[in-house]
Design brief:
The structure is a single chain. By secondary structure, the protein is α/β, with parallel strands linked by helices. The protein has a single domain, classed as 3-Layer(aba) Sandwich (Rossmann fold), CATH 3.40.50.720. It is built from eight helices and nine strands. A seven-stranded parallel beta sheet has the order 3-2-1-4-5-6-9, sandwiched between helices. Helix 1 packs across helix 7, helix 4 packs parallel to helix 5 and helix 7 crosses helix 8. The longest helix is centred in the middle third of the chain and has 21 residues. The protein is globular and about 45 Å long.
């Protein structure tokens, strides 16, 4: 079975994956409205609503019908500045966004997590991602899709040295640890949004690559 989404809520539209996903959404004939709050203005489009400012301020003010929500929020500890700041974005903000999306009527949430996410992990990054997944499951979504991409391959406005070094190697690793092109991830997320399947679905990176071809 397939849904025909009309009204989309998107978080993280200015990020690497979010930019690709936003472009796809705005070019889909079935999508009549994309509500994409961001800290910086996005390029104007007839079907785009773009509240700009501090998420803590505008998140409660978001309104209107929402069918499906996409969450592409995420940062790095280095960019965030501390573990606490990283947790505030990759856990607290994601959970708050999902809660608001549910309040606005969304029945399906597609969220980017990470390969290796585990609330009991000894690795801080993986543990926070696991805690995020756990918190979203507790929100009791009719349909929750968690995608766990491996290393994202694509051109960033602010290149990350570690990713630049690891990128070529990740293309040689088989299975779910093989790097994934960001355009493939965006296509896979859109395909997953069209699938109607009750409950929680976790999609690992190797399956995402297949869906995004």
């Amino acid at each position: 079975m397939y849904l025909t989404p009309q009204h989309i809520l998107l978080a993280g539209a200015s990020g690497l994956t979010g930019e690709h996903l936003l472009d796809r959404l705005l070019n889909e004939p079935t999508v009549t409205r994309v509500l994409a709050p961001s800290r910086k203005p996005l390029a104007e489009h007839p079907h785009l609503e773009n509240p700009v400012g501090d998420p803590a301020v505008f998140l409660p003010q978001l309104s209107g019908r929402v069918d499906i929500a996409f969450c592409c929020l995420g940062t790095t500890i280095k960019k965030a500045g501390s573990e606490e700041a990283f947790r505030a974005i990759d856990l607290d903000m994601v959970v708050a966004f999902a809660k608001r999306a549910r309040e606005m009527g969304a029945r399906h949430l597609i969220v980017i997590s990470a390969i290796g996410a585990d609330p009991k992990s000894s690795v801080f990054y993986n543990r926070v991602k696991g805690e995020m997944e756990q918190a979203l499951k507790a929100q009791d979504w009719p349909q929750l899709t968690i995608v766990r991409p491996s290393l994202l391959l694509g051109e960033r406005l602010e290149p990350r040295l570690a990713e630049q070094l690891a990128g070529p190697l990740s293309r040689l690793i088989p299975g779910k640890y093989h790097g994934i092109e960001v355009c493939e991830l965006a296509r896979a997320m859109w395909r997953l949004a069209l699938e109607e399947q009750d409950g929680v679905r976790v999609v690992e990176s190797d399956e995402l690559r297949k869906l995004g071809k």
